[in-house]
Amino acid sequence: MASLVSNAKRREMDVNRAIPTFLAFLAAMILSFGLTSPLAAQPKQTIGASGNPIPRFISIRDDKALMRTGPGRQYPIKWVFKRKYLPLEVVAEYDVWRQVRDNEGAMGWMHSQLFIRGGRRFAVIRGKTRSLFRDKSLDSPIAITAEAGVIGEIIACEGIWCQINIQDHTAWIERRHLWGIYKNEVVK
Question: Residue 139: how many CB atoms within 10 A of its CB?
Fold first, then answer.
């Protein structure tokens, strides 16, 4: 019986030592996750093979563009985009190929000649139908409304507001309702 008591005490002592160790490990994991989560920090930009930053947004030049499974014409077609000016996020580069992500999360590779050059930027209305205002204020008169998925050309973005042009109508919209521009990115 004495050996059973001593074994039980030994287990109790082991558990008492294990609890602080486990709690320290758990705290380290929670802190580690918190510091690396997307909410804690924006992803760092790097410079790609083209000399341009990665990540960045670009837009499709024509009414039809092919997305492939890899960086080359020998790779199968994954997706056919049929929306001129659709913005895509460049996440990697290989030679003249760009690995891109669309606003729904589809990823693949596209040739760099498929994109607009010269700095024109476009964005997609996201979420639901949105009001666009005459001025940078929610109290301003509504200029137009646009459904989710409508593409507009970005004229300017500063702070929480972006001025965009949709079918010859220029108006202001809160940046958070657009996909195709980063949270703190300035466009003039």
Answer: 6
